[in-house]
Amino acid sequence: MYLYNLTLQKPTGIVCAINGSFSGGKSQEIVVARGKVLDLLRPDDNGRIQTILSVEIFGAIRSLAQFRLTGSQKDYIVIGSDSGRIVILEYNKEKNVFDKIHQETFGKSGCRRIVPGQYLAIDPKGRAVMIGACEKQKLVYVLNRDTVARLTISSPLEAHKSHTIVYSITGVDCGFDNPIFAAIELDYSEADQDSTGQAASEAQKHLTFYELDLGLNHVSRKWSEQVDNGANMLVTVPGGGDGPSGVLVCAENFVIYKNQGHPDVRAVIPRRADLPAERGVLIVSAATHKQKSMFFFLLQTEYGDIFKVTLEHDNERVTELKIKYFDTIPVTASLCVLKTGFLFAASEFGNHGLYQFQAIGDEADVESSSATLMETEEGFQPVFFQPRGLKNLVRIDQVESLMPIMDMKVINLFDNEETPQIFTLCGRGPQSSLRILRPGLAISEMAVSQLPGIPSAVWTVKKNVTDEFDAYIVVSFANATLVLSIGETVEEVSDSGFLDTTPSLAVSLLGEDSLMQVHPNGIRHIREDGRINEWRTPGKKTIVKVGYNRLQVVIALSGGELIYFEVDVSGQLMEVEKHEMSGDVACLDIAPVPEGRQRSRFLAVGSYDNTIRILSLDPDDCLQILAVQSVSSAPESLLFLEVQASVGGEDGADHPASLFLNAGLQTGVLFRTVVDMVTGQLSDNRSRFLGLRAPKLFSAIVRGRRAMLCLSSRPWLGYIHQGHFLLTPLSYETLEYAASFSSDQCAEGVVAVAGDALRVFTIERLGETFNETMIPLRYTPRKFVLQPKRKLLVIIESDQGAFNAEERESARKEFFEAAGIGNSENGNVDKMENGGDDEDKDDPLSDEQYGYPKAEAEKWVSCIRVLDPREARTTCLLELQDNEAAFSVCTVNFHDKEYGTLLAVGTAKSLQFWPKRSFTAGYIHIYRFLEDGKSLELLHKTEVDGVPLALCSFQGRLLAGIGSVLRLYDLGKRKLLRKCENKLFPNIIISINTYRDRIYVGDIQESFHYCKYRRDENQLYIFADDSYPRWLTASNHIDFDTMAGADKFGNVYFVRLPQDVSDEIEEDPTGGKIKWEQGKLNGAPNKVEEIVQFHVGDVVTSLQKASLIPGGGECIIYGTVMGSVGAFLPFTSRDDVDFFSHLEMHMRQEHPPLCGRDHMAYRSAYFPVKDVIDGDLCEQFPTLPADLQRKIADELDRTPGEIMKKLEEIRNKII
Amino acid sequence: MSVFGGDSWGREAQYRKRRVDDLIIDGLDSSSYKKLSNGKFTCLLCPKNPIFDSSLMLSMHNKGARHLAAAAKLKEREISIENEAKKRIALSNCPVGYAAISITSMQASKSVSRPLIQQTRKAVSEVLCKQAPQQIGDNIGCHSLGVTSGFSCNTSVFATKVAEIVPPLRKLDFQERRERELKFTAAGWKRDCTGKWFKDENVEFDSDDEDPNVCLR
User: Fold this and answer.
1) Average pLDDT over all residues of chain A
2) Strands A97-105 and A352-357
3) Which residues form the RSE1/DDB1/CPSF1 C-terminal domain (chain A) (predicted)?
4) A1019/B contact by beta carbon, under 8 A
């Protein structure tokens, strides 16, 4: 089996983020690392985050930093990754790529503890960079300029110290003195030697300053002093005239200012009033804002509260450190304060936010200060505060994030949709949600209005070619035409000059400022001054089809006669030429007039004899046939799409101008071909099935470029995004006819007719594969099951260290009463249903923003929810009592019992992970569905001697993985009856799949075990297992002998039982073999073989076999912790395998990954990659420079066009 | 080839050996032996499937008397199976469908003069009637419910054909009984040496569970 791996949704979580001016000048951009993807983001003028560039680097980004050489206008990016190399990148604005400036190797690849890459620190003046490992090694590179102002990098200087763990490093701002780096370190050499553990308990963290002597080119330990053992982060304090220099040490409960030769200045971090006493407060992210006259820091705690930290200083002397409550937003991985007045918050989980500063926290608020710090015998006196609504920040945009995907299923639960939806459980704690992903672009509907009849067509038209906005919407009915003028409101007008007693075939602007209406009996030309010229059809013939652009019109009369008109210099429409076609014309189109030309050269004519002809419109060979293309069925609609030449830049790649002819065929296929701009010859045909109706094609404008709308049984948009032509479905209903629409409310919209309604909408978030619908949940979702018959979802959610809904509600009431806010008359019951985090503005304390109040770690909350995804409504929600938490769920049909389908839920009571994994009891609950599956009733619960982490229905009974025991239960009157068990599993069973009488059991640590149930003996036998100890995170059953699994190191693998072994097992008439055969070393007698292996580079949490296109082949869809969705498509032909493996090989050679990790080594990080071709690498082919593309294409004996066609084809097989 | 390293003669020797092996194997019928994953060979014709370290030994074995005897026996059996197959094909080719015909209609159409075929058919159906219950029993015994490997599938189809010819009472009874017994074993009942049922002590039962000692009597 050969597979093709393709990422469908790039990771949406963020590991780290930096901000700066990467394209130079005044612009402010954000660079984010999403695990294996590096993105450049920029807030646009409307305050929406736009992704400018997104690059997969085939490696793990562990740290990011930006620096600027003195006097320069542009920031560089330094990346610490798992490649064992330091990489410096520069953003190239012209080509819209990251250019690799330097790549220096210093160690082995992989995330190792003593190979640097985990920490990065920059000298604030951009003279040096320190890259550190978790332990021992730190390297310093000196950055400089050469004579032509290019960046140079020195050989590394070592600042190693063995037996030392590093917690954080940062550059110290000391102006233009020698660069200094600060580090929080812990020396464990003594603790390691001392077996009594005393030295370990006395181990002390130190703050160490390393000085880089630029004169001697040498790094030395300059100063070291003890810090709190809770210290976890360092923040640079501005120096060199702007401030006092030194660092802020963020420790548990404290922020401490430290500098060499300066006494400590310490202030306590204010605590939330409801925080349990044993919990500390840690700072998790920080941002510095610096202006000419002042600076301050924003520090965020692990509970999401942001504090503004200011320093009172007198030159180099810090007199006071103040920590003031600023605002509360969801916990972030990184905070970026932009100079333009925005705060970008890269959330740890859930959606990322872009905030605008309303104020900078100058108003009075809860504040702690070093001056008022009180020490009593119990320790330092804490300062308390209550979180409140946002005061200093206001959220203006959010970027959706699926991180982490906890579970995923692909199925079509909506009757009116033809493609399946992806249901994902995302997020954590109060930010949990169920997200329904649909392939396609999201649209936002601006208006829907009913019309007096069923319209057949719609156009928009400007009054003058220079106008920015459209003037009229013209709607044609079966026997009339309606003209609407666009202004403040849209209303019907009668003075437009259009003939309203006849249906229209086309309406457009002609020449500079006149309008044209084509109706079956003639052409009506309305001049700007109101004069009307009418051209009538000869005899009894009627016009059937029209093709037009701004200066040319071609009409087809019944019988197949073509008449060609042109607008002459005086603005008159003149007949130029006639031509008799052999039969009726099915469709027509004229290419748009090229810039600076009089006319377009090409006319395309589609006929019912399944051909498309290109005719010349040149005066010397007018209406001569230039090219003929035969197609599989009669064309219904034609559209020329011109792609303007581009040399890269903001949103494009380097490509020459080209002209595409698109044809919608009657079979529902979109046929696309390239038209030679000189000869009119057609080449490079591609076709794609769009839907059951023949696609109608319309031109539209998307981000200032021409795009194509295809209306089949669902609408599609063809547009250019980051240099690729994408054809993506729109998540909207079936449309009849459409036209682009532009008014002052809506610059780039579409007006369309469907049924008897006129619809105006805009298309959003271009470039995305999926659009999502979000349904908030209450706690971290764990798993869910489907009831396909009733189309309901049953979700189990559980959280550690939180209060349950009633406790929270009462605490909240108490707080509101204390604060005197007259809220909470609604009781929030409805909102509680959905986790209490919908966008309710009058809720002053939404859980989504503030998080749940924290309880003791051994306290669990959990619920079981039945949800109707069609109405996004929770029909039943059972909160578990007595500190129980749900971990597994399945539906089961017990044989010959009265209840029908039941729900089994595995729970654990008082589960603890620290200091040792322990629990009081495990239970399996059995619920009955009531009210057509909409609610649940507990039938009984059975205590079991372990945590049931896996449940599965099997032959009318329930299989449960309880700890390391696999057990078969039958339904009893008062409890489940244990019928059979097997205790031979090595660790903990976390997944069970069944097929016929085989059971495929996944162990948390040792991969799959294949079992068989013998009914005649009432025994479970393990007959095969895996030879690799895999830490399983997800599993899926592929076929009788094959399982797909994913491990926690980011590998996906398939194992298969060899055919002969499988046959032997099945043809074992006495059963003696399976019973008595012994394995070696406690293993099973047979071993499965690994047939596929691939390193995804991200922990895969769910795998499913599904097809995302109706009637398409099945592929394996996976979801990951970082919130990405990908697919493995099995190849069906050997030729494709050969082609793509060669393309992959050439891509590896010619286009090595950006951060210096070898592609092959990355994909083989834990096990050698086997039989998987990396489509993500292959899809970078179009981004290569043209000469490189040609070189690779020559090696493969193809043209670059053919390669791109292949890539497009295989992508279309998946989505 | 790291065992021999560099450009020593070892690699060449290895190649030569492999080439010789290939040549020896070439002469043999590929269906009569199998190359195992450990590189050894096994003879598929001999009933005990002896294992040989090298192709040379396999080729020597193939010339041996025991192997030849086994091969001859196998051949004989194949021929007999072929004959049997032909016979059945001949039977099924008769114009009235084999399965569709009922005994009464058979009697009615006795006048049609095909005495030999009639006779054979009768004999065959008698033989099959006697065999059928046992065969089905075996089938269930060796394959738990739900498994439909090629073998069991065929027999069950065959069995239904037979079932239409003979009065189905006896067979159904047997199958039903067998199924009920299986249900009890799956529910955790066991049998002692006298055929009495007792509860497995590791299995839990409901208070009102049926007792096979009573209901199977």
Assistant:
1) 90
2) unpaired
3) 862-1181
4) no
Bond preceding residue A915 cis, omega within 30 of 0: yes
Residue A608 CB-half CA count within 13 A: 8
Q: What is the block-wise mean pLDDT of chain A (1215 residues), using blocks of 10 residues?
A: 95 95 92 96 88 93 95 94 95 91 94 95 96 96 93 95 96 94 96 91 95 95 95 95 93 95 94 88 95 93 94 91 94 94 94 94 89 82 89 92 95 88 93 93 89 91 89 91 87 87 92 90 89 89 92 91 90 89 91 84 93 91 90 93 68 67 94 90 89 92 87 90 81 90 86 91 85 92 90 94 85 75 45 44 65 84 94 94 94 84 95 91 95 92 95 95 95 92 94 94 96 90 93 96 96 96 83 74 90 96 93 92 96 95 96 94 95 95 90 94 91 90
User: Residue A978: its chain B contacts at CB < 8 A?
Assistant: 202-204
Contacts with A473 (C-beta within 8 Å, 6 or more apart), sequence order: A458, A459, A460, A483, A484, A486, A490, A739, A741, A751, A758
Chain position carrying tokens 């941002």? A287
Task: Tell me the CA distances in angstroms from A1200 to A384, A494, A1187, A1206, one per residue in order.
Answer: 65, 54, 10, 10
DSSP alpha helices (H): ranges in A796-873?
Answer: 805-819, 829-833, 847-850
At residue A124, φ and ψ (nearest 5 deg) are -55, -20
Tens-place pLDDT, residues A446-496: 889 898 889 999 999 998 888 888 999 999 999 899 999 988 888 888 888
Separation CA A788–CA A307 (nearest Å):
49
Phi-psi region of B166 (alpha: psi -120 to 50; beta: other; left: phi over 0): beta
DSSP for A71-135? T-S--EEEEEETTSEEEEEEEETTTTEEEEEEEEE-S-SSS-SSSS-SEEEE-TTSSEEEEE-SB
Measured between CA atoms, how close is B109 to chain A, in angstroms? 42
Contacts of B185 in chain A (CB under 8 A): 1015-1018
Q: Tell me the C-alpha distance between A843 and A233, whole Å.
A: 34
**Side chain identity at A1168, as an amino acid letter?**
P
Across the interface, whether the CB atoms of A997 and B208 are under 8 A apart is answered no
Please tell me what DSSP assigns to residue A229: T
Nearest CB to B187 within list A970, A1013, A1070: A970
What pLDDT digit, counting tens, does each position of A382-422 carry? 899 988 889 999 999 999 999 999 999 999 998 888 889 99
- Closest Cα partner for A456 from A528, A504, A386, A514? A504
Residues constituting chain B: 217
Whole-angstrom distance, CA of residue A1051 vs CA of residue A1097: 7
Residue A168: per-residue pLDDT? 97
Which residue type sits at A567? V
**pLDDT for residue B144 is more than 80:** no
- Is A1089's Cβ below 8 Å from some Cβ in B? no
What pLDDT, on the 0 to 100 scale, is given for residue A656?
A: 66
Question: Computed over its alpha carbons, how large is the radius of gyration of chain A?
Answer: 34
Secondary structure of chain B in the HEC alphabet? CCCCCCCCHHHHHHHHHHHHHHHHHHCCCHHHEEECCCCCEEECCCCCCCEECCHHHHHHHHHCHHHHHHHHHHHHHHHHHHHHHHHHHHHHCCCCCCCCCCHHHHHHHHHCCCHHHHHHHHHHHHHHHHHHHHHHHHHHHHCCCCCCCHHHHHHHHHHHHHHHHCCCHHHHHHHHHHHHHHHHHHCCEEECCCCCEEECCCCCCCCCCCCHHHHCC
pLDDT at B149: 38
pTM: 0.84
- Flag if B206 and A1070 touch (Cβ within 8 Å): no
Question: A1148, exposed or middle or buried, with CB in 10 Å at 0-12, 13-18, 19+?
Answer: middle
